[in-house]
Amino acid sequence: MPLxxxxxxxxxxxxxxxxxxxxLASGILGKKIKTLPGLIYTVYFLFANxxxxxxxxxxxVYADEYKNVFGLLNGTIGNLLHxxxxxxxxxxxxxxxxxxxxxxxxxxxxxxxxxxxxxxxxTSYYSPTFGGIYLYAFITIYIxxxxxxxxxxxxxxxxxxxxxxxxxxHLFSRKSWAVGILLLSFLLMCVWQVQDWLYPDxxxxxxxxxxxxxxxxxxxxxVQFLAMYAAGQDKIRAQEEMIAQHQAHMELLxxxxxxxxxxxxxxxxxxSGLTLQAQEGDLAGIRNFMRKTxxxxxxxxxxxxxxxxxxxxxxxxxxxxxxxxxxxxxxKRGIHSVLEVLYPVxxxxxxxxxxxxxxxxxxxxxxxxxxxxxxxxxxxxLLQEEQELYIAVSNNYEKEPELSALTRKGYTTKGRGRxxxxxSYRRIVSGYKGCVTRTYLKDGxxxxxxxxxAA
Length: 455
Prior knowledge:
The chain has 455 residues and is an alpha+beta fold. The chain has two domains: 3-242, no CATH class; 314-453, Heat Shock Protein 90 (2-Layer Sandwich). It has twelve helices and five strands. The chain has a five-stranded mixed sheet with strand order 1-2-3-5-4. Strand 1 (336-340), helix 11 and strand 2 (377-384) form a beta-alpha-beta unit. Helix 3 crosses helix 4, helix 4 (98-126) runs antiparallel to helix 8 (206-280) and helix 11 packs antiparallel against helix 12. The radius of gyration is 32 Å and the shape is elongated. One of its GO terms (molecular function) is identical protein binding. Keywords: Coiled coil, Membrane, Transmembrane, Transmembrane helix. The chain crosses the membrane at residues 6-29, 41-63, 69-90, 133-156, 177-194, 206-232. This is Sensor histidine kinase NatK-like C-terminal domain-containing protein.
């Protein structure tokens, strides 16, 4: 067999496997399969495995006793490296979370290796001896690696149609679940390498093939079951938070009602004095009364009415609930709050609702924690523009923050050990294209702006 044909066969197998891995991982994440990132990863996979193949040949020639150990290390550490690179590609080009992408790469590797290994063993064992070596190579080498692409083409539409990615993402809502799914998927990825290392002379049979094909199905169903359970827990927690936010909204309405009752009582007393002044023809006194009454009205009810109008202008109901809860919290803490939503805000943005709530919540929490102990003020502005949603959260401060230090991981203005919020906020925003942030100081206020493109 010519060397050129052998090299082409090796390259073809690596290309099929790399492309299949990318497609499977993208399908698990529910991302659209794009050509450029797939090409980049496939080229990387080709050259990386070519180098590994050269190293394996060297080990076989000069240290044959370590051949099995090298194969095990390649199957674990090598595949881990391939998965990390794939996760980075998915994050860079498809906006996927790194850890979700890494687990998807592990699961994709397990599926690809299972399909390839089962078919390769089966074709090698059951294929008759052919006179043409090229036909034999096509059946025993080309078909098994092409099967990886075929399996990906079959599984990816099923995953998308079933909405698997929606449940899958919920597995990473808690650290314990995320660690568990990462370990499980990594062990599944390594099962073939460990099996080859422990039982190198295993003879494939029909039961052997059925077992590993069933293992793929069981693994996917088990992951989906865990994901659905996690999604259910998140839904329950979201409902509990929604109830708490509704209660905060009702408390705000009750406080406004009490303010109106108090104002009505005060206004009745003030109006009695106005009647006497009118009877006496005291125009100057009436003007002074009207001026004081207007100021009194603004002080007593103006802010509450402005906040209620602002909340009513927020058509994104989850955001409205979040703002209601935060305003009620600030009222309890004695923090002066100003909400400015002059026009309706109801357009959808590119950011997922959960991430939007987390991001805005972090900004407001940071502002609440950073205000002075007395006379603290937090301002929240929402403005729906033609192509984007503008959000600004600002607060006054006692000590001027270091703007240059804000980009450091763990930095905070709230005290030692409490600097994870800004890091999480930057990670959320970085996952969406077109989102722009800005931080600056103005007129004694620390201002953080967020601009979100319309969906």
